[in-house]
Amino acid sequence: MDERENRLLLEQWIERRGGNAKITGKKALNLNPLITADESGHRELHLAWWWVHVGNEPATFSAFNARDDKLLSSRVWKTPFREHRALAPATWYVEKGKKFALPGGEAFGIASITTTAYRGDEKMLTYALVTRDAVEAAATVHPRMPLVLPAKLHDDWLDTELTGDGDLLAEALTASEELSRSMVIVVGDDGQGEKYG
């Protein structure tokens, strides 16, 4: 897929969904943008199912988020973390009804892990967002937040030759600290939060 195709796919998704990623339910197929890299490092944009599949079926447990402290030990998370990482592009996220963004409204990448499933003959990418301990404003709303990665770590996170291990996880957590601490609650209808953009 070339850059023009990626842009068109993303523009169509934004127009259709208003830029809102939604968890895929049992009846509604809500596919969301996800960035992976091939063996040569070329980035690819996919529309993926936001709920990890296990054994070609949606997991029977809550599988839209994967805790950072379980990536190395969980039977479900360790292989995707080791071998199949991705980035979910975003400009904001919502937790407990509060919208969080970077102060300037900049785009960021949320660390994700993937599995592959099949719907009939169609190959489909499924994913979970990686979460970390919440800090600063995010911690006032919920104890967890997405693992937001700075651009300097995107190549390593997506590198198919780099095994997901304790070193990569520690590097990701350290690198995410500044961005995570800078997240603000965006002004809502109630006038609470900060303006951005």
Automatic annotation (TrEMBL):
<dbReference type="GO" id="GO:0003697">
    <property type="term" value="F:single-stranded DNA binding"/>
</dbReference>
<keyword id="KW-0378">Hydrolase</keyword>
<keyword id="KW-0227">DNA damage</keyword>
<dbReference type="GO" id="GO:0106300">
    <property type="term" value="P:protein-DNA covalent cross-linking repair"/>
</dbReference>
<comment type="similarity">
    <text>Belongs to the SOS response-associated peptidase family.</text>
</comment>
<dbReference type="InterPro" id="IPR036590">
    <property type="entry name" value="SRAP-like"/>
</dbReference>
<keyword id="KW-0190">Covalent protein-DNA linkage</keyword>
<dbReference type="GO" id="GO:0008233">
    <property type="term" value="F:peptidase activity"/>
</dbReference>
<dbReference type="GO" id="GO:0016829">
    <property type="term" value="F:lyase activity"/>
</dbReference>
<keyword id="KW-0238">DNA-binding</keyword>
<dbReference type="InterPro" id="IPR003738">
    <property type="entry name" value="SRAP"/>
</dbReference>
<dbReference type="GO" id="GO:0006508">
    <property type="term" value="P:proteolysis"/>
</dbReference>
<keyword id="KW-0456">Lyase</keyword>
<keyword id="KW-0645">Protease</keyword>
<dbReference type="Pfam" id="PF02586">
    <property type="entry name" value="SRAP"/>
</dbReference>
<protein>
    <recommendedName>
        <fullName>Abasic site processing protein</fullName>
        <ecNumber>3.4.-.-</ecNumber>
    </recommendedName>
</protein>
